[in-house]
Write a structure and sequence with these properties.
By secondary structure, the protein is of the alpha/beta class. It has 9 helices and 20 strands. A hairpin with a 2-residue loop joins strand 1 and strand 2. The longest helix is centred in the C-terminal third of the chain and has 21 residues. It is globular, with a radius of gyration of 21 Å. The protein starts with 7 loop residues before the first strand and ends in an 11-residue tail after the last helix.
Length: about 350
């Protein structure tokens, strides 16, 4: 897993950062860890969690964010609940304990947007004996080569709602900017909204100095393992009368983005692809990967394409809810196939 120094690169635009960690900072972190341990011991479910970890762990953590995504897993029949501890509710979230393809799994629906996703990943890691996080869900496409029903496995994701809103007529920087005047109609020109300057996020990792990164990398070993999934059979038909015009595929190594923004604007979609080579947009993947990086826990992301920004339902020839269900179903299939490649320790099966 990438936990050392790394530089984000976008068309010659680079960030790196190794900040010194002083003794005071280490003492503060130690105090926080001690306090967290005390809170765990005092929690009413501490004994139950310990028994779950002893009897069923270690687990692969499986995280989705949206009811349609959870329903796709439930109706698939792949998840078999535990007979003794099928469910624990912690912090308003239901942690479902069971197996997928004979691998011990805990799945949880986090809720939408970055904060919910990050909190839930941290709960999974702090509470249960988790060897890694598999994150699946639906996403919008900003890449003309990604179609509805396809599943993208990104190698890098970015938090694209981290920006500086610039003053009117301020100097242009080396960092990529979204200039509102470029989208004036009928002609480009100046705009009082000026520009958004995209900025990196601060990433803290166990035993490592803080880094400022734009691109967050999924676990290299898990990503390489996921490249074996190109033959997974994906659903093409919504029902007996309508099938997608293109046979869905699994796409590897593309770049994804997350923001607490539902993107339904074709111009912004086009900007993300042309500026950052971003192929998928969602609200949670970057938070999941970032939380895993902070805890030195591997992660992998599977996103099924459910829509393309700026394309109406009449152009997709079907209802948006049906397309979301199909995209979630395909993301589940790829996630399950990946989990089947793991053993109980989150490692690749030896054949």
């Amino acid at each position: 897993m990438m936990i050392g120094r790394r530089r984000g690169v976008v068309d010659g635009w680079r960030w790196g950062g190794l900040w010194a960690v002083d003794l005071v900072g280490l003492l503060v972190m130690a105090a926080m860890l001690e306090e967290t341990a005390e809170l765990k011991i005092s929690h009413p479910l501490t004994g139950v969690v310990e028994r779950v970890n002893e009897r069923h762990g270690p687990f692969v953590g499986l995280l989705m964010t949206y009811p349609t995504e959870e329903i796709a897993l439930q109706v698939s029949g792949f998840f078999v609940p535990s007979s003794d501890f099928p469910l624990l509710e912690i912090a308003g979230r239901r942690f479902n304990i069971g197996k997928i393809k004979d691998v011990d799994v805990i799945y949880v629906m986090s809720g939408e947007q970055t904060l919910n996703a990050g909190i839930t990943v941290q709960l999974l890691i702090d509470t249960f004996d988790v060897v890694g996080i598999v994150h699946y869900g639906i996403a919008g496409s900003s890449n003309d080569s990604l179609f509805i029903g396809d599943v993208s496995i990104p190698k890098y994701v970015a938090q694209t709602s981290s920006w500086k809103w610039k003053k009117f007529k301020s100097k242009e920087q080396t960092s990529p900017e979204l200039k509102f005047g470029d989208y004036n109609l009928p002609n480009k020109g100046e705009n009082l909204l000026a520009a958004l300057e995209f900025t990196p996020v601060q990433v803290y990792s166990s035993g490592r100095p803080m880094q400022e990164l734009f691109w967050l990398e999924t676990d290299p070993k898990w990503f390489n393992l996921a490249t074996q999934l190109q033959d997974v059979k994906l659903e093409q038909c919504l029902n007996d009368t309508y099938c997608l015009p293109e046979k869905p595929k699994v796409a590897y190594g593309l770049r994804g983005s997350s923001a607490d923004i539902f993107v339904d604007n074709a111009a912004y979609n086009d900007f993300l692809f042309k500026t950052f080579n971003i192929s998928t947009v969602d609200e949670e993947s970057a938070a999941v990967v970032m939380a895993c990086m902070s805890n030195s826990v591997p992660s992998v992301v599977f996103r099924g394409i459910s829509d393309k920004a700026g394309v109406g339902e009449s152009e997709t020839l079907s209802s948006s809810s049906s397309l979301r269900s199909l995209a979630a179903t395909n993301a589940v299939r790829v996630s399950v196939a990946f989990i089947a490649l793991l053993d109980g320790d989150g490692k690749h099966h030896d054949h």
